[in-house]
Fold:
Amino acid sequence: MSTWLVQHLSAMRDALRRLFGAPLNTLLSLLVIGVALTLPTAGWLAIENLRAVAGDNPGVQQISIFLTLDAGRPEVAEIESRLQQAKPGSWRYVAREEALKDLRESAGMSEIIGSLPKNPLPDAFVVTPADVQPESLELLAKTFASWPKVAHVQLDSAWVKRLDALLRLGKLIVVLLAVLFAGALVAITFNTIRLQILAQAAEIEVAKLIGATNSYIQRPLHYFGMLQGALGGLCAALLVSTGSHFLTPPVAELAQLYGGSFTLQGLSSTDIVALTGIGGGLGWLGAKISALIHLRRIS
Amino acid sequence: MITANAVTKRYPEGHEALKNVSFEITAGEMVFLTGHSGAGKSTLFKLLAAIERPTSGSIVINGQNLAALRRNAIPYLRRKLGLIFQDRKLLFDRTVLDNVLLPLSIVGHPVKDAPRRAQAALAKVGLPNRAKAFPITLSGGEQQRLAIARAVVNRPAVILADEPTANLDAASAIEILEIFRAFQQVGVTVVIATHDPLLMARLNPRILRLDQGQMSEQPCPPAADGVAAS
Structure:
């Protein structure tokens, strides 16, 4: 075994011993780091899930074309052939009789419908566009509106745009939160390492006097920061996973009430590995800065 | 082995601790560095251990000029020296064995072999059965022997000791001295800073005397009453 490996292994062992040597301190630090990482992670997860709702639900990106009430068979056929030429995606023709039948079947509506002298509903096309970019949806809607006997084109693009903007804002907030809490994690590690250096001042002084290099002294501190950060990341993953586990059934229920099916996506194993890695990296950074600053005072 | 040439150490406040000191110590020699307290012994010890740098002049140990040593080369120089400090600098929160293991860990000695090596060092200084004890439970003489074991565990070519018999009774001091002599007899260069006349009388060694920062060589001390030079 090379000397390099021996020294890294013993530094790692040393860091582990210090970590588990003071279990209460370690637990509290891990909890603080875990909570700090939980907030941006949970925010990120919420955004990802919202994006999934926005992107997957076809109801959101539909364009309804309502014809005028006097439009007859030829006009419907005309629109149909124009749609065939324009190829905007898939579409469905909803005849006015069919729409009335649907409406009558929905609860509480049959009496109202029955009191009407004639069918107030127009013929309609429901287009599901292939291209769901807000700009192209807008363009499609304009094209449809210019066709003959089209009374009204309804596009949920205002809603889509608002959601899109909201998601972007949410993402920005999550990024800001992440930066803030990453700073907090570095600061927490910085302080832990500072206290360790203070507690081990005698040992560090002796080690330096009998030939320890700076790397020898810093290595266990770096490992300590990295391990603490990584474990804190795992802690955050655990907190977020527990949270999403408890939220999954009520969210599914809510989705069902709105007539959709949606399962809340928790953290994937890649996410957990990434979170642990980020925690470890930030912990290492905090330890590195702290060791650089505080070890200079002992020599 | 050790050559000092016109070494001067002046502290920032203007005090001149060493003035134009020159001497040479050959390999395998045992040399006593003596003088009253404040004469510059500890300053010279610090310069030899590269804890401080001379204001002018050069100190060469084993071909390395300490005055020109880069900062990051100092640890590697110290590993070749067995340093014994006046206040011993033992770590009281770890066992005797762990204290001796520290230098081995610093040089990256294989972990499996290290305890054996540390035990051998403890045996050499007469503490083979105290490995698991904590330094606080040792007597003054035993603590000093522990400090020696830690200094020699990496088998240095040079031992530098600052007042190794301070605060020890005569019997313990003589035991410590015998340990140093045993190392010298196997070829280790031993430099001891002391103002203890008893030690000097006993060993009849080469003596470098410091007086107010200036050095004079004294070939042989007068034998103290009742203590035969051996």
User: Anything to note?
Assistant: The longest helix of chain A spans residues 214-257.
